[in-house]
Amino acid sequence: MRILVVEDELDLQDAIAEGLRIDGYAVDTCCNGQDAYELASVENYDLIVLDLNLPQMDGLEVLERIREEKAELKVLILSARSGINDIVNGLDIGANDYLTKPFEFAELEARIRNLLRRKFVQENNLLSCGAIKMDLSKRIAFVGDNELLLTKKEFGLLEYFLLNQERVVSQEKLIEHIWDRHADSVSGAIRVHIATLRKKLKAFLNYDPIRTKIGEGYFMTKNDGDA
Hints:
- By secondary structure, this protein is α/β, with parallel strands linked by helices.
- The protein has 2 domains: 2-119, Response regulator (Rossmann fold, 3-Layer(aba) Sandwich), CATH 3.40.50; 126-220, Orthogonal Bundle (Arc Repressor Mutant, subunit A), CATH 1.10.10.10.
- The chain is built from 8 helices and 11 strands.
- The chain has helices at residues 10-22, 33-42, 59-69, 84-93, 105-119, 152-163, 171-178, 189-205, and strands at residues 2-6, 26-30, 47-50, 74-79, 97-100, 126-129, 132-135, 140-143, 146-147, 210-213, 217-220.
- Strand 7 and strand 8 (140-143) form a beta hairpin.
- The longest helix is centred in the C-terminal third of the chain and has 17 residues, at 189-205.
- The radius of gyration is 18 Å and the shape is elongated.
- The two termini are 27 Å apart.
- The relative contact order is 0.12.
């Protein structure tokens, strides 16, 4: 999943971004409202963590403009404005959640998981496809009783496939949601990561659950028949 962190306190921005990257998210950052609006307009984020007290453009104005263009984009306001009027105003304008500073990072993680589940109409923190299981809270995945030892990118790919199983996902879409905006889309790295993920899954399943649809992309299936 791909997240934009908008925060003008650079130490806090770095801490949030690093923590989310450790969780396996692809993270972009910016420190002013104008850049936030422009990035949200041209990039495909799954969620934005948005401060309100921003230079160049206030966070609420950023939110209003985003809502005019991308009604489904999840926005979590993270702000020192803790008054009830500020919270109500932010939610009324279109924020999906509101967390006040200071905050515990574990709570931010939980709120992000909750919002991303809603995006995919996922009711809990457990994903599955046949024998493949994933616990989003603990960030671990299994095939049967065997834990999968995955890199962060492999985990992100598997999560996206599980959330979109039986649906063909293009390589471009995977890049948009798993890599940050500095990714080189022609590097072939995504094919390498998918190949290693397939190898790890097949070692336990004895079949490849990730199929290729030539000219269109990839999809995950629990069917172990021929592709």
